[in-house]
Design brief:
The complex is a heterodimer of chains A (about 180) and B (about 160). Chain A is of the alpha/beta class and about 180 residues long. Chain A has five helices and six strands; from the N terminus they run H-E-H-E-E-E-H-E-H-H-E. By secondary structure, chain B is of the alpha/beta class. Classes of the chains: A alpha/beta (about 180), B alpha/beta (about 160).
């Protein structure tokens, strides 16, 4: 008899406890997703010979992008606005040997990016973004032609195939200090 | 018999709150699962640049964060206004990055080590000189995978 007479535990305050925890997690939580441009740094050159190796690539297969300390853009020895860079890079990559001054094919093409120590980070990211966009647009176009979907929607071997066709080769030169601080 | 008669006209009956804990618990579990604790307090101005070609970082726990920017206004008298590097909770020099990356690598499980990534969260006003220094240090530390943190913008 005594067992039956045990009083029930009052669960009315359960909600309060749960609310307390809920509010704690609400406050501490950060919902923002980290996004960014993913890049791979090159390994440090082992010795002098590797640096010289650059010169063996034909000059027409290198698309030289320079950004100076005043955030001005010099592309293939011509002044350029950031807004034109995407089209310029696409033209260079997608040349297939037509124009003798531009790349032979996208596999051989290299975009060489060089910045000054005084270049602003904002400008640098803008340039990186435009160059990525050029590759992305070319890949998308090719993916649409072959598989009818955009590059990012592709999976496995199909994705690899497109990536092999337009490999993203953005090389960053060894840092130099030209424009001073 | 009138004792058992229900009273009428006393307004609407009270809504049962018995299921309230369940609802609250549901919300609680949602936030518990999605939450990521903020690990560091920012000592630097950190307005990230905008970019459209962004990728999401799948696993934040594999990320080591390097913050770059001018010290926040409250501590400028002490630390100046030039952009600086913040690792964990304090200002550091570029030379400390190798150790920072190594300690992160140490704390990571062996099979996940190749996926480690360094997130550079730099302010828009930072100069590339400092970023270049960081990049050189990361190359020395053989941490080649980096991510320039940006806000994503539509074209």
């Amino acid at each position: 008899m005594s067992r039956r007479s045990l009083p029930e535990i009052n669960a009315g305050s359960m909600a309060d406890i749960a609310f307390l925890l809920l509010i704690f997690f609400l406050v501490t939580t950060t919902m923002d997703v980290d996004t960014g441009l993913v890049r791979k740094l090159p390994a440090l050159p082992e010795d002098e010979e590797e640096i010289i190796d650059d010169s063996q690539i034909k000059a027409k297969n290198i698309y030289v992008v320079l950004v100076n300390a005043k955030d001005q853009l010099l592309v293939e020895e011509e002044l350029m606005e950031v807004s034109q860079l995407r089209e310029g890079a696409k033209k260079f990559l997608d040349n297939w040997g037509k124009n003798p001054n531009l790349s032979d094919n996208p596999q051989k093409a290299i975009i060489s990016l060089q910045n000054d120590r005084g270049t602003s980070y904002e400008m640098y990211i803008k340039v990186q973004n435009e160059l990525s966009a050029a590759y992305r647009e070319l890949r998308d176009r090719e993916a649409q032609k072959k598989f009818g979907v955009n590059y990012t929607k592709l999976k496995g071997d199909n994705k690899k195939e497109i990536r092999k066709m337009y490999p993203e080769k953005i090389s960053e030169a060894e840092p130099k200090n030209v424009g001073g601080k | 018999m009138s004792r058992f008669k229900k009273k009428k006209g006393s307004g609407t009956p009270a809504i049962s709150t018995a299921s309230l804990p369940d609802i609250v618990f549901m919300l609680l579990f949602f936030f518990m699962v999605t939450t990521v604790m903020r690990e560091t307090t920012l000592l630097v101005e950190n307005t990230l640049p905008q970019a459209s070609e962004v990728k999401k970082i799948e696993d934040k726990s594999l990320c080591s964060y390097i913050y770059v920017g001018a010290p926040v206004s409250g501590i400028q008298t002490k630390f100046g206004t030039e952009p600086r590097i913040q690792l964990n909770d304090s200002f550091k020099l570029a030379a400390d990055i190798q150790e920072f990356v190594a300690s992160k690598r140490e704390a990571t499980a062996e099979e996940k080590k190749p996926q480690l990534i360094t997130c550079i969260k730099a302010d828009v006003d930072a100069k590339m000189g400092l970023i270049t220094d960081i990049k050189q240090e990361l190359r020395k530390a053989q941490a080649y995978k980096i991510n320039y943190a940006t806000y994503s913008s539509v074209d």
